[in-house]
Write a structure and sequence with these properties.
Blueprint: E1 2-7, E2 10-12, E3 18-26, E4 30-39, E5 46-52, E6 57-59, E7 67-72, E8 77-82, E9 91-100, E10 108-111, E11 115-119
Parallel strand pairs: 2-11
Antiparallel strand pairs: 1-3, 3-8, 4-5, 4-9, 5-6, 7-8, 9-10, 9-11
């Protein structure tokens, strides 16, 4: 069994910063891709940032230059540093991992429970 546990969400003023963390635990052989998605009540869940095993990253245009995704492979953790936050960044942020449970297993997608980020004055 695999669990993804997010932390770090909350309320912040426009222009402020937050750092999200997601720890992956359980039966893990290898983690291929880790990412952050976000969703608002009136929008589908969408990709914010993704990081590959070797560290290459990609971001949605709206957060480029403001958000940074990093990962700690030794501790199965992914982070999202969010700076210069805007009201439109308000959403529930979900951690995602594509991983293998064993050497012979295929890769499976896993999701965290979500953490609320609210940007408001």
């Amino acid at each position: 069994q695999v669990q993804l546990v997010e932390s770090g969400g909350g309320l912040v003023q426009p222009g402020g910063s937050l750092r999200l963390s997601c720890v992956v635990s359980g039966s893990i052989y290898s983690i291929n891709v880790m990412a952050w998605y976000r969703q608002t009540p009136d929008q589908q869940r969408g990709l914010v940032a993704v990081i590959q095993w070797r560290g290459s990253t990609n971001y949605v245009d709206s957060v480029k230059g403001r958000f940074t995704i990093t990962r700690d492979n030794a501790n199965n953790t992914v982070y999202l540093q969010m700076n210069s936050l805007k009201p439109e960044d308000t959403a529930v942020y979900y951690c995602y991992a594509n991983l293998r449970n064993s050497r012979l297993a295929g890769a499976i997608d896993y999701w965290g429970q979500g953490t609320q980020v609210t940007v408001s004055s």
